[in-house]
């Protein structure tokens, strides 16, 4: 079998994640604590259509360890789905926990809208610096249309985060707040 140069140079079409997989990836990153660190925050930004703010909020939103991602409803290049979870509260920069108001339902729905984003690639000359060609193509990647909100994580990861921050400080007020926060979060496990 003989391949023409043109056929041999064509890259296979990239395998794209489903809308549900994109949202699950974001929640997985939150569960792992990646959205609490600048590197993880920047990594998560590629899941969104709009650029993320450079300096996220100082408060950390805490959600339940248990959540469910519904199947998406897809129409043309737009997908909608809901993540069901429970809002637990917020941790401020002094490691003080502020519980969320008591919910009227056992789970809170959080809607996501995703779109197929356009691709943009550049071809460079042999020097690696000179742009020879820029290509914009049809959408090949699902991205979330909403903006990335401030840092957030699940209860178990929040406990680990507060333990680490407590051990890094000598400030007695922050240490006391951390102890109270850990005790409060243990009730949500």
Structure description:
- The structure is a single chain.
- The protein is of the alpha+beta class and 189 residues long.
- The protein is 29% helix and 31% strand.
- The protein is built from five helices and nine strands.
- The chain has helices at 5-9, 19-31, 38-45, 155-168, 172-186, and strands spanning 60-63, 68-69, 73-75, 78-85, 87-91, 97-99, 108-124, 131-144, 152-154.
- A hairpin with a 5-residue loop joins strand 5 and strand 6 (97-99).
- Helix 4 (155-168) runs antiparallel to helix 5.
Taking pLDDT < 50 over at least 5 consecutive residues as the criterion, the unreliable ranges are 1-13
Tally of helical runs: 5
Computed Rg: 21 Å
Dominant shape: flat
State the helicity in percent bands: 25-40%
Task: List its traits.
single chain, alpha+beta, five-stranded antiparallel beta sheet, four-stranded mixed beta sheet, 9 strands, 29% helix, 31% strand
Secondary-structure blueprint of this entry?
Blueprint: H1 5-9, H2 19-31, H3 38-45, E1 60-63, E2 68-69, E3 73-75, E4 78-85, E5 87-91, E6 97-99, E7 108-124, E8 131-144, E9 152-154, H4 155-168, H5 172-186
Parallel strand pairs: 1-9
Antiparallel strand pairs: 1-5, 2-4, 3-4, 4-7, 5-6, 7-8
